[in-house]
C-alpha cells in the first residue's frame, strides 16, 4: 500500500492506496484515537492494521488537488548515509568506504512533495542528491542482517539537498545538510510488500529542469538495506518511524565542471521504479 500525508483547507489528513493509485483519505481529526501514522507505528502492527482499515473506508482523494506533506513529520531519527555508491564516492574524491558514512538530518529541514526547497540567503551552493529512504516499522537493537528486512515498514524518496560550502566548513557534514526546508521527502510511503525484497534493482533518477543529472540503481549500493539496519542497530536502538536515507549515486552538481547548483526557478524531480516522483521547485529563502 501507499500512504500519503496531506493538507486541505487547513486540515491535515492521511490517504492510502492499495495496489494502485486510487487514494482514499481521512482528516486526522476524524481518525480520533487511531492517531497519526507515527503514533500507529509506535503502537505496533495492530494499530497499523486499525489505521489502514479506517483509511480504506475514507473518501476518494486526488493527491494532485491537495498539498502533500512529508509522510512522517517528526521521526525520532533521520539517519543519512553518505558515499554509498562507488561512482559518487569516486567523483567526491573519497576512497570507497568500508563502513557506512553516517550523519543526521533534523525534522526542521523537511518539506513534502510539491513544496519549495529554499536556497538560504547565506549560500548559493545548493546541490541536489536523489536518494531512496526506508522507514523502520519494528524497532530493535543488534538486529541481524538476516532478520533486518522484517524491521522495514516502507520506502520513499528523498532529496538530500546540501549547501556544499557549509558542508565542507567542518570535518562533519551535518551543518551543510540541515538548512531549513532543504530535505524533500515523499511523495508517499510505499510498504515493503509492494517492492522487491530489500528494494533491490530499483532504478533511481534525478532530473533538474527536465535534464537527467543522476541515473543509478539500488543494486549498486555499497551497503545494502539489510547491512544498514544491522550496522546501525549495533550502535543505536532503531525505533518505529525512524527514517534512513540510503545515499546518492554519481552526478551531483558539486562534481561537475563548472559546478551545477540549483537556483530559484529550478525544478528538481527524483524518480524511482515503484516509488513515484518527488518534485520540488527551488525558491530563495525569505
TrEMBL record:
A UniProt-annotated Pfam family: FAA_hydrolase
GO MF assignments: hydrolase activity
Keyword Hydrolase applies: yes
Residue ranges annotated for the Fumarylacetoacetase-like C-terminal domain, each copy included: 77-283
SUPFAM superfamilies, sorted: FAH
Alphabetical keyword list: Hydrolase, Metal-binding
Hydrolase keyword on record: yes
Cofactor(s) in the UniProt record: Mg(2+)
InterPro entries: FAH, Fumarylacetoacetase-like_C, Fumarylacetoacetase_C_sf
Family: Belongs to the FAH family.
PANTHER family recorded: FUMARYLACETOACETATE HYDROLASE DOMAIN-CONTAINING PROTEIN 2A, FUMARYLACETOACETATE HYDROLASE DOMAIN-CONTAINING PROTEIN 2A-RELATED
Protein name, per record: Fumarylacetoacetate hydrolase family protein
Organism listed in the record: Variovorax ginsengisoli
Lineage: Bacteria, Pseudomonadati, Pseudomonadota, Betaproteobacteria, Burkholderiales
Amino acid at each position: 500500500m501507499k500512504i500519503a500525508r496531506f493538507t486541505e483547507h487547513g486540515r491535515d489528513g492521511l490517504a492510502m492506496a492499495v495496489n494502485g493509485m486510487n487514494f482514499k483519505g481521512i482528516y486526522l481529526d476524524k481518525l480520533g484515537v487511531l492517531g497519526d501514522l507515527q503514533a500507529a507505528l509506535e503502537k505496533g502492527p495492530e494499530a497499523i492494521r486499525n489505521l489502514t482499515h479506517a483509511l480504506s473506508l475514507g473518501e476518494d482523494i486526488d493527491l494532485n488537488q491537495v498539498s502533500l506533506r512529508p509522510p512522517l513529520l517528526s521521526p525520532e531519527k533521520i539517519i543519512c548515509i553518505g558515499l554509498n555508491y562507488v561512482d559518487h564516492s569516486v567523483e567526491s574524491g573519497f576512497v570507497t568506504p568500508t563502513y557506512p558514512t553516517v550523519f543526521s538530518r533534523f525534522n526542521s529541514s523537511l518539506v513534502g512533495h510539491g513544496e519549495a526547497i529554499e536556497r538560504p540567503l547565506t549560500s548559493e551552493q545548493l546541490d541536489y542528491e536523489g536518494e531512496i529512504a526506508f522507514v523502520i516499522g519494528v524497532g530493535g537493537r543488534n538486529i541481524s542482517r538476516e532478520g533486518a528486512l522484517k524491521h522495514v515498514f516502507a520506502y520513499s524518496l528523498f532529496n538530500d539537498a546540501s549547501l556544499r560550502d557549509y558542508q565542507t566548513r567542518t570535518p562533519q557534514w551535518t551543518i551543510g545538510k540541515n538548512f531549513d526546508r532543504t530535505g524533500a521527502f515523499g511523495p508517499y510511503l510505499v510498504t515493503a510488500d509492494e517492492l522487491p525484497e530489500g528494494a533491490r534493482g530499483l532504478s533511481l533518477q534525478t532530473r533538474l529542469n527536465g535534464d537527467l543529472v543522476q541515473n543509478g540503481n539500488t543494486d549498486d549500493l555499497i551497503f545494502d538495506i539489510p547491512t544498514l539496519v544491522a550496522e546501525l542497530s549495533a550502535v543505536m536502538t532503531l525505533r518505529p518511524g525512524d527514517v534512513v536515507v540510503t545515499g546518492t549515486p554519481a552526478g551531483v552538481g558539486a562534481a561537475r565542471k563548472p559546478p551545477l547548483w540549483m537556483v530559484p526557478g529550478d525544478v528538481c524531480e527524483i524518480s524511482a521504479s515503484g516509488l513515484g516522483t518527488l518534485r520540488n521547485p527551488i525558491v530563495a529563502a525569505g
